[in-house]
Every structure is written in C-alpha cells, then in structure tokens.
Amino acid sequence: MKLEKNKIVFTSVILCIVIFIGGYVALIIGDEEAPVLDSNQIPVPKLKDEQKAYDSKLDALNDLKEVKQTNAPSIYDERLLDSTGTYDPYLLDKEKKRLVDSIYKNGRIDYTAGSYKNLEPKESTPIEEPKTESTLAEIEPKDSTEELALEHQLFFSSNPNENQIDKIQKTNKTISVIVDGTQTVQTNYRLNMRLLQDVVIDGIQIPRNTPIYGFVSFQPNRTLITIKNINHLPVKLKAFDLQDGSEGIYIKNNFRGDATQEVVDDVVQDINIAGLPQVSGIKKIFQRNHRKTKVTILNNYQLILKPTP
Questions:
Q1: What's the structural domain count of the chain?
Q2: Is residue 169 assigned to a domain?
C-alpha cells in the first residue's frame, strides 16, 4: 500500500512539471505571433513622443546643456607649435633670442654698464648746402707759376708704387694638364693635351680645357715634351711627370742602343770615302730604325707644365 502511494506522488509531480512546461511554451509562442500584413494598407511605425514638455521657459533654459567640442589631445606640446601649426622643438629658444635681439637692436639696455641708454631722439645735424657758382668764384686762384713748376718737378721725380695688378698677372709656376686621348707618337710628333684649370701665362688668362699641343723627343727611358705655343701665344714650357716629378714621361725601352744609332748616324753623315758604297746603306738602316721608335701615351695621363728660362 505504501508502494502505491509513492508511485502516485511521483507521477503527480512529473505530471505537474509537464503541465508547467507546456503552459510556458504556449505562452511564449502566443506572444511572438508574426504580424499579418494587410494588402491594402502599408504598416507605419508608431511615433514616440520623446520631447519633454516643460511648464515654463525657465525650466527649459535650465535644462539646456552646453555642447562642447571634443578634440583628441595633441601628442606635441602646444607651446612648441608655431603660427602655422608646425612642431618646432626649439621654438621657445628662438623666441627668447628674438626678444633679446630686438632689445639689442633698439639699444634700450647696456648690459656691460648695467644701465639704460638714453632714449631721447638725437639732434639732427644740419645739412651743408652745396656750393654755388658765387661761392666758387670767391675761391682764390691757385698758386703762382713758380709753385706750379715746383709741383710739376716733384711729380716726375716721385717714385710711385708698383701696380699690384702687374704683380698678380704673371705665369703660374705649375700648370696641370692631361693627355687628350690615347696617342702613339714618334719623334717630332704632336701630342694633344688640355688644361685642367684656369691659368695665367704672361699676364693672359687661359681658360680650362684649352687644347695644348706639345712636340715629342726621346731620351733613354724618357719621352720629352716641349710646348712652344698656346692659343697663338709664344711660350716656353716643358712637361714633367706627375708621378716622379722628372722631366718627360717615364717609359721602359732599350733606347740606349737607339741613342747610339743616332750618334752613329750623325757620324756617318760626315763620312764620304771613295770605294765604300755600302756606307750609305748603313746610314739608311740607322735612320729607319730611329724612325720606328714609337711610344703609346694613355688617355688622361697627368702632366705638369713648368716655364723654362
């Protein structure tokens, strides 16, 4: 009997829970019914009157709130922004210097004496009137003829100072040039060069990049260059190697034998022996070998020209 009572109580509790759940679900479903649209009428949302009604104007004015403009704070100090809004970290120092400069410029304070200067305006000095013809006529005539003769003698006997322009206008001690293009030259060939800078030669200004022509001759292990004319101006210049400072350009050759041949060539010119026709042939061989001596000078090779007495 007790077992049946327990079953009845348990069943009744479950039944109540089921009824409660069913009623709650039905209530929620009933509230969320989809609105039905009338085909002949467009639905209009309901207007809500959110404006507050005041009994008096004083209440309305007291209820007004000032709307302030909110700006993001600047990452720079506003004191360091100039009139254009540009940030300058040294703006305060510049303003101080400007104020100090304005005080110095106006001359209001004497910092050395520790006192203020007189700010009263200075008295204007009268302007002298130009001399007219009447005043010029009043001037006595200059000294007599004897005094004029004495001044004339003193003028020609004086020793005037040397004109400074003449001292400046002279030939430069060194003139820098470069070889204009790779060139293969022989004796008495012309070597093309050009100036690296403006120079003064015999008081005449020669501009940069002016072409210069030198004539080639040879010595043992040296190629000598002589310049006799620049822009139709007669000169006496010799080329010196920039690397070793010696006259001419250093070359590696067996010029000692060539020089010997040149000496023999000069001797053979004076030999005139009857019955030795082969001497003229030897002479031609020496001349031909001497003419075949060639030297290649590279482009932009730097030289220094120096005047010779």
A1: 1
A2: no
